[in-house]
Amino acid sequence: MTLALTYPMQSRGTPWPAAEWPRGKLPAATDAARLDALLNQAFSSDAHDAMGETHAFLAIQGGRIVAERYAGGAHTAASTYPSWSMAKSITQLLIGFLAAEDAIDVDAPINAPEWQGEDDPRGALTWTQLLHMSSGLAFVEDYVDGSRSDVIEMLFNSGKDDVAAYAAAKPLAHEPDTVFNYASGTSNILARAMGLKVGRRRENVKAFMQARLFGPLGVTSALPKFDEKGTFIGSSYCFMTAEDFARIGLLALRGGQWEGRRLLPQSWIDFARTPGPVQGTDGRGYGAHWWLEMFSPGGFSMNGYAGQWVACCPDRDLIVVRHGNSVNEAAALKQEAALEWVKQAMSCFGA
Question: How far apart are CA 78 and CA 126, in angstroms?
């Protein structure tokens, strides 16, 4: 897997999203008829058995919304949609502001309070190892079997009041940087550590999010959730409109720049897009809390449970946002089918 370092620039004739997104027509290179047929298919009840429900679809090319559709009813442009694990990528961006100010060293230990024992090997775990999902901490990321699922236990049962403490209590199952283990618990350990740097209380963390990320991007709908200890549940919970999720994608696609300002160093976005030291066995690439090349060569994406995606395609200056309810079940791999549908939709757009 190679990293395409080129980030497409925002055209001088295209305004940045403010209160509203700029809109444009589908470029001439787009297969508009095929895209329309795919959208008709996805938003029909006939698609539910195969790929689940599609609630929202946005395509942004050249910095403008060029295609948009919503299911209607509870699913409109004004509706807020779940992030699920797309919140992990938002957490990575937020940590980047602290790293850029030298408030943290991501190659240094994260210093979780549970790991302060003199002989505790977890005390050496770094921010980077957790961002790469290569910490070696034991954690079972199973979304179905509650009897063996750490993520279900953490979010909904015994761990829900202090999600970071639940995750940090896990022992090392592997030597760091030897096994890729996608684990929502590591994201919450990171989110707590980030919160400690900005004042710990949820009001301080919200103010930090607003001042550094949401405010500059014009994101007005964000609803981050916190546990009883005041930790942002950075693994799973930041609701937004589809258009606001697209703003997050555009910041990354522009390499950390926004409206003539550099909000994040390009090196931080490069870090997000660079494969970690170990990868999963399913062929899907992972960088630092962003998925790699799942939708396009050189592309990167925010991925969430049940088919929430913000897919960024640099070589076509394209962002596709999809929200829906596509849960893999015993009889049907709905999320996999929805993912393939998004790939087909993206293939309709030329350079």
Answer: 39
